[in-house]
């Protein structure tokens, strides 16, 4: 039993998976942070672009 516990403690098989999960979570979090930061500006800019295109070419 003690040998099994010692082997489990020193095993590194799942460590790489945990590293990749942490890295992936960091990348997703950073992407969401950036998206949240630029969302308001992008929506405003696209609204202005849409309005200018409608004014120039009409709505249909």
TrEMBL record:
Transmembrane segments: 20-46
Domain of life: Bacteria
Keyword Transmembrane helix on entry: yes
Record keywords: Membrane, Transmembrane, Transmembrane helix
Record has Membrane as a keyword: yes
Protein name according to UniProt: Flp pilus assembly protein, pilin Flp
Organism of provenance: Sulfitobacter delicatus
């Amino acid at each position: 039993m003690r040998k099994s516990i010692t082997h489990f403690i020193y095993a590194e098989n799942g460590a790489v998976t945990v590293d990749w999960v942490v890295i992936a979570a960091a990348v997703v979090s950073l992407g969401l942070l950036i998206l949240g930061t630029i969302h308001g500006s992008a929506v405003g800019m696209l609204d202005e672009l849409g309005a200018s295109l409608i004014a120039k070419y009409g709505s249909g």
